Amino acid sequence: MIVFDKVTKTYDNGVTGIKDLTLKVQQGEFVYIVGQSGAGKSTLIKMLYHELVPTSGHLTINDFDFDTMRPQDVPMLRRSMGVVFQDFKLLPRMTVFENVAYAMQVIETPDADIKPRVLDVLKQVGLEQKIRRFPNELSGGEQQRVSIARAIVNKPTVVIADEPTGNLDPDTSEEIMDILDRVHAAGTTVIMATHNRDIVNSRTHRVIEIAGGAVVRDEAEGAYEVED
Amino acid sequence: MKTNVIKRHVRDSLRSLRRNGWMSVASISAVTVTLFMVGIFLAVLFNVNHVSHQVENDVRVRVSVDRKTPQAAKDKLAKQLKAIPHVEKVTYRSRNAELNSIVTGYGQQWKMFRGDDNPLNDVFVLKTKSSANTIAVTKKARKLANVDSASYGGDTARKLFKVADKVRNWGIGFTVLLLLVAVFLISNTIRITIMSRREEIAVMRLVGATNSYIRWPFLLEGAWTGLFGSIIPIVIVDMGYAAVISHSGLTVASNGYAFFSTMPFLFWLDVLLAGIGIVIGAAGAGLSMRRYLRV
User: Fold this and answer.
1) Taking the CA of residue B181 as centre, how many other CA atoms within 13 Å lie in the half-sphere pointing to its CB?
2) Is this complex's ipTM strictly greater than 0.85?
3) pTM reported for the whole predicted model
4) CB distance A67 to A58 below 8 Å
5) All domains of chain B, ordered by start, with CATH?
6) Is B206 within 8 Å of A49 when comparing Cβ atoms?
7) For residue A150, how many C-alpha atoms fall within 13 Å in the half-sphere facing its CB?
């Protein structure tokens, strides 16, 4: 379970990213985080993987309490989740296979276990034919699929996706959403920040709207915008 | 660390070195140029030291014994000389042995002085523990009974000592300076390589890699850079040294002094150069990536 309890994040330059934000996400939920640019979506997402820490308030993600976490716990938190970025963030000098395998290597998985699991996950995202390609040899959609494969290869309990379709065309976006839906169907919590109105409206899930750093709307089966 | 993780780091570091292409070539070239200078300088410095030690050790105090000194007095003198502080060894050479040395060194015509015509004195040759003691020992020897004269080569020896000392001090200073330049040059080149990969390091952290897991392949890559960068300097310095020894070694040898022979000197010089490359390469990488590993 993810719990934000009156969390505020103020940057060094005095700008407030989120303010007194409180919300709970249960295990296995699919949540869209929507809102205009600058609303605080990215701040919220970055806090989830400890890229940013709260200035005040309490944040808990499963067994990780941000109040008591030590620096050496941060890699452990990140290993418990998968993160998908708008700009993919693949390792440019590694092949598709190596990018996905890297997430397993850092948790010291034996080589013998890595190969079958990576091939299985790459098959799930439809990239089993391109395992030796480098990221710059792939389309945007393919790179995002590698990114998702890397995010789910360790079977995390939470997948965080920060605008995963932001750089993709509508058809490719649908393919990515199909994969995320399958991940969710397997019991994984998915938290996805997005600007994509069509996707939010066509694949209904819980919608949390952020404005001015606070939750202004939280609907169990919401739409991108409030319907009149 | 588990064996399979170590293997993985070694494999990853070599793969990364290969895939970094021109950046790796640039780093290795910086190491090559620097170690080439270090190699030449070390070879010269070690040999200057070696020869100057030989020159120093060659300086002896020669104590001429008064003629007609009876054998008992000579024995007593030998004991007195041995008792002078800092004297390591006392060797007796009769006047006949002295003349034989001259005949051997300067020609048969000196044979005519053999027998009663021999104008030379018996001598005691004193070896001191350190060249710095030579003058004091000479002075003390002069004061003893039955000593005709005592000498150590005077001004020539003094000048030699000064030159040897200067070469050693300046040599050490210059080597330290050169090594600092090497550290600076190599670590800066590696820093540029790592700066270009800071995004990569950030991604590694985002997928849950610990700092040490990220650091090892980079450290090893730095070490490989140092090792591969030392190959060309080692080959050139070895070949150059062998050529210099074969051309000028004889000249020096005819003066009674010798450079280090190629083996095992070159072996240890090669090990030293490779070691400097590896240590500076790894240290440069370690220092450069510190800032990107802060949580």
Assistant:
1) 13
2) no
3) 0.68
4) yes
5) 3-56+159-293 (no CATH), 60-152 (3.30.70.3040)
6) yes
7) 34
pLDDT tens for residues A159-190? Answer: 999 989 888 888 888 888 998 999 899 999 99
The residues on B that touch A, with CB distances below 8 Å, are 2, 4-5, 8, 16, 19-20, 199-200, 202-210, 213, 295
Instruction: Label residue B186 exposed, middle or buried (CB < 10 Å: 0-12, 13-18, 19+).
Output: buried
Spell out which residues of chain B touch residue A90, defining contact as CB-CB under 8 Å: 203
Interface contact flag, B295 A71, Cβ < 8 Å: yes
CATH of A27-55+81-219 given 3.30.70.1520, 1.20.120.80, 3.30.365.10, 3.40.50.300: 3.40.50.300
Closest residue of chain B to A88, computed from CA coordinates: B203
Size of interface A-B (CB pairs under 8 A): 51
* Nearest-CB residue to A75 (from B19, B202, B209): B209
* pLDDT 10s digits, A42-98: 999 999 999 999 999 999 999 899 999 998 899 999 989 999 998 899 988 889 999
Average of pLDDT values for B206-224?
A: 87
Q: In which band, very low, low, confident or very high, does the pLDDT at B252 lie, cut at 50, 70 and 90?
A: low
Write the CB contacts of B41 (distance below 8 Å, at least 6 apart in sequence). B174, B175, B178
Q: Cβ separation of B207 and A72 shorter than 8 Å?
A: no
Q: Answer yes or no: do B206 and A83 touch at CB < 8 A.
A: yes
The per-residue pLDDT for B154 is: 59
